[in-house]
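From the thread on structure requests for the teaching lab: each student submitted one protein with a one-line request. Submission from student K.M.:

"Model Histidinol dehydrogenase from Rhodopirellula sallentina SM41, tokens only."
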Amino acid sequence: MTSETVDSLIRFVDARQGGLEILAELREKLSPRGDLVSPRGRELTQAVFGKPLTPVEVVETICRDVQSEGTAALLRYTESLDRASLTAETLRVPAEDLQSAHAEAAPEFLDSVRRIRENITQFQSAIRHEDVTITPRPGVRLTQRYVPMRRVGICVPGGAAAYPSTVLMTAVPAQVAGVDEIAVVAPPTPFGAYNKDMLATCHELGITEVYRCGGAQAVAAMAFGCDALPAVDKIVGPGNLFVALAKKQVFGTVDIDSFAGPSEVIVIADATASPAYVAADLLAQAEHSPGSAILITWDEALIDSVRGELQTQLAQLERSDLTRDALSDFGALILVRDAEQACELTDSFAPEHLHIETSDPDAQIATIRNSGAAFLGHHTPVALGDYAAGPSHVLPTGGTCKWAAGLSVNSFLRSGSVTMFDEGATKAIADDVVRIAEKEGLTAHARSVSIRTEA
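Reply posted by the TA:
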């Protein structure tokens, strides 16, 4: 059993006798079912499609049209949904625009981009899979090899803010993998494909393909290919509900990184944690709006202190109204019995981000199986991972980290085996192969081996 108090800012839950149900409720609220749409979105859907479609129906229609009509449908939806009138020739950002954005960028900004690129490169290079070859018996050579994908597409958001960090966190791992071609799509907005910081980052990384399109239509174009935007092998990067649903729709035609939902964090904290730090970490996640921000602690005094800090710090934020809404809708301050229960609840929720602010974070993370990315200690805010540490900030959400991994250099490598037997080794293993093949009734399989062993 749990007891719950809801105020105008964030709910408090006494979960010392339970707690799983409150996290299950939050998980359900965060689940992108694809059947909800804002009033503005509903109006736009009615205007564009002439009837009230669900987001799933919208995405299915767009993907079907782009697959069958190609560039014409891509441009039509770009105009009707994004209010941008483009042609096949103006869809791609010209090389001179990338160059000029880079030339006009602040030197300090480019210095940061270069340092972050080096951090990402260093980490991704260290974890990159390498070919493994064994010779278990004379005449047998077995290899597992890793080959980079030829061409990948990256979705960069551009609705409410510009995201040069997304370019870094997706493109650099692909480059470390050895991907030949990288295509970036961003909505035709001041925060998207017309944002000079984003374009300057692309140029700094050597990315020459940037397209002025976003949403489901851009995902469909990259998956199916068209005259103006050749098809890719894999689509990665974040986006809104329509982008997520489109990636799910085209999976199978191409690979995708994940079916991403709202961002989320669980902060596990004890009496050694700074209430100001904890509040700042919760607000940083709620700022995504929607974004889930949950504190789990066994120190009751910390909850009161954090609530006060939330009120104080909220007043200083530019997006305070949106952040407050996210705290109210998707946030919680949860009191548990002890560290063991905190870890059990965290494992059941399987958060995208986990921040452990305790006296011994190594002890807690050792008992937690499920988190997309973990941040340990009082001085390791999640924002370090979002922007500069080295691991990619593209992570599994919605509890999917129970089976999914975050984006990395290895996401862009295709694994395959290479087998080689000489004549003697084939003869040595032939009886086993023939015996099993004949048991399965696959006599041609058996014959393809036995014919090589006949005198």
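TA comment: The chain has a mean pLDDT of 92. The two ends are 76 Å apart (CA to CA).
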